[in-house]
Amino acid sequence: MDQNNFDDIIKRSLAIREQYHELERQHHGTVWTLEEDALAYLTDAGLVGRNIMSHQKRWLKKDSAAELEHKLGENIWWLIVLADRTGIDIKEALEQFLTKTENLFK
């Protein structure tokens, strides 16, 4: 993977989400709502917290290092999906955030 090609990461992320939508159609007749996607993201964000606690030896959990790596990637994937579903350009949102925050420290 070209580590610097965010456009490719976004394209791949949305293609994977569409594959999950197909599974949802098969199992439930409809795709998850935006709210269900947001809840799934929040669940995974919480799991990042638990795995960080395990990393710091504050929560005992087997295989937390591998799961932490997976969940960090999955959280980025969810943010790309949520941005797409809400019509937000994730690259522009990130650029604006970085610029605004950098300006706070000037």
Describe it for me?
- With 106 residues, the chain is mainly alpha-helical.
Low-confidence stretches: none
Question: What structural category arises from helix and sheet content?
Answer: mainly alpha
**Overall pLDDT score:** 95
| Helical content class | over 70%
DSSP strand count = 0
Based on CA atoms alone, the radius of gyration comes out at 16 Å
Following the backbone from N to C, one meets helices and strands in this order, namely HHHH
How many distinct helices? 4
The geometry reads as: globular
Largest sheet: none
- What percent strand? under 5%
| Head-to-tail CA distance between termini | 35 Å
Protein name: MazG-like protein
Organism: Chryseobacterium endalhagicum
Write the layout of secondary structure elements.
Elements: H1 6-28, H2 34-55, H3 64-85, H4 90-104
Helix pairs in contact: 1-3, 2-3
Characteristic key phrases:
mainly alpha, 77% helix, MazG-like protein, globular, 106 residues, single chain
Question: What is shown here, in short?
Answer:
With 106 residues, the protein is mostly helical.
